[in-house]
Write a structure and sequence with these properties.
With 178 residues, this protein is α+β, with helices and mostly antiparallel strands. Among the domains are: 1-46, no CATH class; 100-137, Orthogonal Bundle (GTP Cyclohydrolase I, Chain A, domain 1), CATH 1.10.286. The protein has 7 helices and 7 strands; from the N terminus they run ααββαββαααββαβ. It has helices at residues 2-6, 11-15, 24-35, 73-89, 101-117, 125-140, 155-162; strands spanning 18-19, 22-23, 51-57, 62-68, 146-147, 150-154, 168-175. It has a 3-stranded antiparallel β-sheet with strand order 3-4-7, with helices on one face. The protein has a two-stranded antiparallel sheet with strand order 1-2. Helix 5 packs across helix 6. The chain is globular and about 70 Å long.
Length: 178
């Protein structure tokens, strides 16, 4: 409740929060000493948007928050479906524009190396690597993935069936032990 009320920017600010005469971090250390199991807040994210959909999976072992540009019920239901997709498929980004340049460069280099090992001509390596990068986006970015509830369409196509203007702004995926 404190985290929701105060809207902390990051994990460190949350753990430094005073509560009952101690910081939250100190309370967690005390609780760890009592039960003998480490208790920690390893991840924290503040998700703020017009609409936020949530999904918990597998006895709360995976949790997903999806930020949308709408808080209408059809959009929020679609957001819950997308959160389920994210829990199952673990995409790294919403689309290719939100994939870091470092990841893009690494995937292009891997694509060139594979093509080179297959004996492809040097002048074709960049084109082949670009094709492999597009496949990487299809597998690893949310909007390009096949929709888990209907594999005949992509997630982007599914969103259009709900609302042509519905946008996934971001998502956050938490997993225990990860």
């Amino acid at each position: 409740d404190i985290a929701l009320d105060q809207k902390f920017a990051d994990r460190d600010a949350l753990l430094a929060t005073p509560f009952d005469g101690k910081t939250l971090g100190e309370i967690l250390i005390d609780k760890t000493a009592v039960i003998g199991e480490k208790i920690d807040v390893s991840n924290y994210a503040l998700v703020s948007s017009e609409g936020v959909a949530a999904y918990n999976h597998g006895a709360n072992r995976i949790g997903v928050l999806v930020a949308l540009n709408s808080n209408e019920e059809p959009a929020l239901q679609a957001g819950r479906d997308l959160a389920m997709q994210i829990a199952a498929m673990n995409p790294i980004a919403v689309d290719e524009t939100s994939v870091s340049q470092e990841v893009k460069d690494k995937e292009l280099e891997i694509g060139r190396d594979i093509a080179r090992q297959e004996g492809k001509p040097e002048e074709m390596l960049d084109k082949i690597a670009q094709g492999k990068l597009q496949r990487f986006y299809k597998d690893n970015t949310l909007l390009h993935q096949a929709f888990v509830k209907d594999s005949s369409m992509t997630v982007a196509a599914f969103l259009k069936t709900v609302d042509a203007n519905l946008i996934v702004k971001s998502f956050t995926r938490f997993q225990l032990g990860a």
